[in-house]
Amino acid sequence: MSESQHLLKQQQGDNIEIIEEQQPINYGSLHQQQHSSVKFKIEEKENTLPSVFISWHNLIIKHPKSGRIILDNVSGMAKSGQLVALMGASGAGKTTLLNTLLSRNLTNLTVQGKVLVNGEEMGKQITFVSGYVQQDELFMGTLTVKEHLIIQARLRLVGSTERQIKKRVSEILD
């Protein structure tokens, strides 16, 4: 794994940790209906904008009426210039994590923990400076994860040959 590539993987049931430059960071656990694996991959990308990072600490998201824990003690960070992919089965908590990071669509949920931008809490102000494209608007259901990554690589790795693109996608998936 290269220094610029990080992989979040499932270990011992639902416990997930990120491997970053061979130093593990505890990422808590995601509660999901079928306990399928969740992968979190980050790819460094050159950036000329001022450095910005978002970090989240000990997020616990619950549905108050049912008592269901959607996210349990999840922490992490995304740095400026990184392309982040959050993958997992339906119900794993991917959308809930993104909505929590952006302080959106949390009406019927209780949220504990902190979300920081450059080390400071922004609360609902984060919606004025950030966003994401949801799955339904971005992906075609007939494509595999590999095919989606190849499409994104073609868009982002301008000047790369098809062979280089496929090699890079294979490295990310390994």
Which helices and strands occur, and which strands form pairs?
Blueprint: E1 5-10, E2 15-20, E3 23-30, E4 39-44, E5 53-62, E6 69-79, E7 82-87, H1 94-101, E8 110-117, E9 120-121, H2 135-138, H3 145-156, H4 162-173
Antiparallel strand pairs: 1-2, 1-4, 2-3, 3-6, 4-7, 5-6, 5-8, 8-9
Helix pairs in contact: 3-4
Task: Identify the notable features of this structure and list them briefly.
174 residues, alpha+beta, 21% helix
Written account of the structure:
Mean pLDDT is 71; it is low at 1-39. The protein folds into 2 domains: 5-132, no CATH class; 139-174, no CATH class. The chain has 4 helices and 9 strands; from the N terminus they run βββββββαββααα. It has helices at 94-101, 135-138, 145-156, 162-173, and strands at 5-10, 15-20, 23-30, 39-44, 53-62, 69-79, 82-87, 110-117, 120-121. Strands 7-4-1-2-3-6-5-8-9 form a 9-stranded antiparallel beta sheet. The longest helix is centred in the C-terminal third of the chain and has 12 residues, at 145-156.
Quick take:
This protein has helices at residues 94-101, 135-138, 145-156, 162-173, and strands spanning 5-10, 15-20, 23-30, 39-44, 53-62, 69-79, 82-87, 110-117, 120-121. With 174 residues, it is an alpha+beta fold.
Average pLDDT value? 71
Helix-strand sequence? EEEEEEEHEEHHH
Count every helix, treating DSSP H or I runs of 4 or more residues as helices.
4
Radius of gyration, whole Å? 17 Å
Helix vs. strand class:
alpha+beta
Give a short account of the largest sheet. 9 strands, antiparallel
Number of strands: 9
Number of domains: 2
Strand order of the largest sheet: 7-4-1-2-3-6-5-8-9
Unreliable parts = 1-39
Percent range for β-strand residues: 35-45%
Distance between the termini: 9 Å
